[in-house]
Amino acid sequence: MRQILFFSILLTQAVSCLADIRPRALVAHSPSAAEAKHGRELLSGVVKRWGGSDHWSSAGAMVAELGDHWPAGPARMMAMPWPQSGQPVRLSWQIGTDNARLEFSGGERAGEIWGIQNWATYTIKDGVLKFKDDKTITFWLPTIQYFIEAPFRLGSADVLFYAGEGKARGQEYDLVFVSWGTAEPQSSIDQYLLWINRATGQLDFMQYTVRDMYPFVTGVMHYQDFRPIGSLTLPHRLTAAKGLETDGYVHEMRIASIGLAPITDPRVFVPEPLRAGKK
Fold first, then answer.
1. Cβ-Cβ contacts under 8 Å for 207 (sequence gap 6 or more)
2. Among 23, 43, 220, 223, which residue has the fewest nearby CB atoms (within 10 Å)?
3. How far apart are alpha carbons 233 and 150 in whole angstroms?
4. pTM (two decimals)
5. How many angstroms from the chain centroid is the CA of residue 22?
6. Which residues lie closer than 8 Å to 152 by C-beta, 6 or more apart?
7. What is the per-residue pLDDT across 82-114, written as a single tens digit (0 to 9) for each?
8. Residues ≥6 apart with Cβ < 8 Å to 218
9. Whole-angstrom distance, CA of residue 88 vs CA of residue 85
10. Three-point CA angle 173, 208, 113, nearest 5°
C-alpha cells in the first residue's frame, strides 16, 4: 500500500489504461532500421560518457554509499521505506544480475542488512540470516540498482529506436525509446524514454513506467552531479522528479561514493545458492 501511494503521486495516465510513454506521434509509427540504428548510436554515446560497458563489466560488483532524501509530505509519510529521510545505506550488487544487498550504515537500524538473491529476499539482523518474502526489498533493491546503471542495462533491449526531438527546461533533446518485445504498452514489461542532451550528449532525464506496481504509473528520473570515479563517470544525484519541467521531487538519492569492486566471496550476494524466488 505504501508503494502504491508513492507511485500514485507520479500519475500521468488515466487509472483505467496502461501508461504509454511513447511520444504521441509514434503511437501508430513503425520505427525504421535507420531510427533503430540512430537510437543505439545515441545510447552508445551515453554509455561511453559514463565510462564504457567494458569498464563497467570489468569488476564483479558495484558499491554505492548513499542517502535517500524525502521532503516532508504525504509521499514521505506513506511511502518512504527507511526509518528516516536521508537514511545512510551501503548498497552493493553483483553486476549482470539482480543480486544485491543493502546495509543500514547509520541510525537506529545500523548494521541491519536487506538482501535479494535470485529474487529470494532475506534479512540479516544481529548476525542472524533469515529468508522471508518481503515486497519492500523485492522492489527497492533492484530498482535503485537499475536506475544507477540504466544506460549499461538498457542496451539489452530488442526494441530501441530514435523517437524524435524534445525540449525541457530550455534545453534541446534527442529522445530514445526503449522496451522489449514490442513498443506497445504491455502489462508486465516497462517502457523507457531517454532524454539525451543535444549539447552535451549526456542522459539528463529518463521517463519510465512501473509495471510492477500499477499499469498506469509513470515517473521521471533526473540524472545530475556527474563525477569521475576511476575509469567511470557516474551521476551522484538521482532525483525522482514530479515532471520534466518542475524542480519539485518525490525523493532524491544522493550518492556519497560509488565504485567497482571485486567479489572475493560469492556468498556475499548468494548466501544460500539453492534458494530462489519469483520476480
1. 21, 192, 193, 195, 218, 219, 220, 244
2. 23
3. 13
4. 0.90
5. 19
6. 47, 50, 53, 56, 57
7. 989 899 999 999 998 999 999 999 888 999 999
8. 10, 11, 12, 13, 19, 21, 207, 208, 209, 210
9. 9
10. 125
